[in-house]
Amino acid sequence: HQKGVIEGRERFLEMIDRYREVIPRRHAAMLEFLAQPRTIDEMVAHRFVYRAHIPASFADRAELRCAELHLARMVARGEAESTDDGRYVSR
């Protein structure tokens, strides 16, 4: 993702390791955010994937899909549940 040309195997492997850590770190941040009941729209607005300076027209779609995937995983694992009013909360 926008890293340009990567010089050397050691640097490449280092970057791959950091990239591989992103999903578990994001998952943990979302679970923490869901300590209070939240809507998917609130998760999108929080911006777990893209920084605030990225245009919303692009980022919101990606944020929505990311939130949906993580929520599905959290619910399936019993880490979170949906509330009667359409929000999600971690267990």
Structural commentary:
- With 91 residues, the chain is mainly alpha-helical.
- It is 58% helix and 7% strand.
- It has helices at residues 9-20, 22-33, 40-46, 56-77, and strands at residues 80-82, 88-90.
- A two-stranded antiparallel sheet has the order 1-2.
- A hairpin with a 5-residue loop joins strand 1 and strand 2 (88-90).
- Helix 3 crosses helix 4 (56-77).
- The protein is globular, with a radius of gyration of 15 Å.
- The relative contact order is 0.15.
- The mean pLDDT is 92.
Unreliable segments of 5+ consecutive residues:
none
Proportion in helices = 55-70%
**Structural class label:** mainly alpha
Fraction in beta strands: 5-15%
- Strand tally is 2
Give the radius of gyration. 15 Å
Q: Helical segment tally?
A: 4
Mean pLDDT score: 92
Summarize, please:
With 91 residues, the chain is mainly alpha-helical. It has helices at residues 9-20, 22-33, 40-46, 56-77; strands at 80-82, 88-90. It has a two-stranded antiparallel ribbon.
Which terms would index this structure?
91 residues, mainly alpha, two-stranded antiparallel ribbon, 4 helices
